Structure to design on (452 residues):
């Protein structure tokens, strides 16, 4: 199907690569196409210029946020968390209506360096902010609780982890569940409505704090149901 | 060794039972001994009166918070989270100095019914509040991320979970680690200093939200390190 990904960073690229492998048509959206194509240096996280990724994945299209949001039957939001609402505004709220929107963002403020600071409060998680911003969309918080490379390749040496998700629409969560299982996740753990996105965003901080304290980037959580 | 447990609820009783089985001398502290012994009905969580537990565990002593804190070489705080600082005041801050203090509390406000509301903000977790309140104590946040019966009997049908801990004192965390392993935990996952207690308290909410949404009380998390 046609999938639009907002954001050209490591998360957007990793998801795009996998979705193309899966046979989907993928468009990636950016704030300024000319600017994104002109960059010739690694970004602040050490990711190579986007053009390198694009030349290795010629079937992918890079377009504006609005073209991408209009194109996708399903949309992934992978921008910097604190830029997500503005990206949606630039993309045009109407382009999200009725669609499954997978919110992969985290509310991280890296303005004072690493590790990033957590930048939302209870009742105002990014997942909730995004759902309130595009009330006609079927927002599912997912894939935000682990590093990008684990999202699409979850199998660990020590076992197969489980993916936390939250959202208001059961069919949208079913779609994300099926995608996650096809990528090798053991299961999805449905935490309920989008008001529970806060616990997924704090869960991401658990991953991040452990990562920075231990210089570990390959850990994940398995859920034991009983 | 001599262990003091502040709090007579399900968590305090469960830990006391296990620590007695382990061969420790256990004293349980309460706000008002006469009142606790006089209760003859189940509490708000359906726990039977404390005297039932006490008559089944005659080696345990029930005393005031202050006698209990003075008695214990290691102390566990298992009161209602929002009552913890007051319990420490009643116990006498000086009785915590230099001791390992295992903080099992969660910042839950059940005044509007179940499920309880999360009642602290980032930078002000109960673990941090308690450590700031008794700066001479070696506070370790631990055992707060799962239901009481899992604390002392972690083995699940689907595997052996791992226990998140946080605290400033390495020796105190080592003591908790050894205790957890002796109770059957796969490992402890050290999240760093007590400033990370917030992520353990939000992690507890992940457990609680799933529990209430699914009427599930036996789930736990396994940590895949690689």
């Amino acid at each position: 199907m046609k999938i639009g990904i907002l954001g050209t960073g490591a998360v957007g690229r990793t998801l795009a690569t996998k979705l193309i492998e899966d046979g989907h048509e993928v468009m990636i959206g950016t704030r300024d196409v000319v600017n994104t194509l002109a960059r010739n240096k690694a970004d602040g996280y050490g990711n190579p210029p986007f053009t390198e990724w694009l030349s290795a994945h010629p079937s992918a299209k890079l377009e504006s946020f609005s073209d991408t949001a209009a194109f996708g039957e399903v949309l992934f939001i992978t921008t910097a968390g604190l830029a997500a609402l503005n990206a949606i505004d630039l993309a045009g709220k109407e382009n999200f209506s009725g669609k499954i929107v997978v919110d992969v963002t985290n509310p991280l403020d890296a303005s004072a360096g690493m590790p990033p600071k957590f930048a939302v409060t209870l009742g105002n998680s990014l997942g909730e902010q995004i759902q309130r911003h595009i009330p006609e969309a079927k927002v599912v918080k997912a894939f935000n609780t682990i590093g990008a490379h684990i999202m699409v390749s979850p199998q660990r040496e020590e076992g197969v982890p489980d993916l936390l998700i939250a959202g208001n629409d059961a069919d949208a969560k079913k779609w994300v569940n099926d995608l996650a299982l096809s990528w090798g996740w053991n299961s999805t753990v449905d935490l309920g409505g989008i008001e529970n996105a806060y616990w997924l965003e704090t869960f991401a901080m658990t991953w991040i704090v452990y990562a920075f304290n231990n210089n570990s980037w390959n850990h994940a959580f398995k859920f034991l149901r009983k």
Remarks:
- The first strand of chain B starts at residue 2 and ends at 6.
- The CA atoms of residues 20 and 132 of chain B lie 30 Å apart.
- Residues 2-214 of chain B form a domain with the Rossmann fold fold (CATH 3.40.50.720).
